Amino acid sequence: MACLLARFRFKRPNVESFVTLELKKSGQDMYACIMGQSCSLTVFTVECKLKPDAEWVRDCMASFKEQMEAEGFILDEGTNMESALASHSALAKKADLTLHEISAYFHLPVKAAASCLGVSQTYLKIICRRLGVDRWPFRKVASVKKHM
């Protein structure tokens, strides 16, 4: 299961065309997906595997942003490339996760949540026990959602 790390949307002023860049992580692998849209139709989609090196990805993102700006596109409001990449790399390297950070993934199985957080399942379970979460609540959350 791939987790979406960040989504950046570039638009061309006065024209209904967009280029969307999504960064995804599946296990230890990182992927970039670039989609071009014009008049609400997808014109192209390109997906490629990236090196699992945060610094390299950050450099590629900066180059991509420069190229898009050179072609007349601007980064859409609400997307900040630098902060999104910084928060992901900080989260992956973080020694201690908070309950707030972990609880955002309670809707996923523990294996998928650990992958999204960039830690092993065992480490995630250890952190959860320290924070007072004895069992991963995915099934309970799914059961409650089913009865709503």
UniProtKB/TrEMBL annotation:
Keywords: Coiled coil, DNA-binding, Nucleus, Transcription, Transcription regulation. One of its GO terms (molecular function) is DNA binding. The keyword Amino-acid biosynthesis does not apply. Residues 81-148 form the RWP-RK domain. Pfam families: RWP-RK (PF02042). It comes from the Eukaryota. Putative transcription factor. This is Minus dominance gene product.
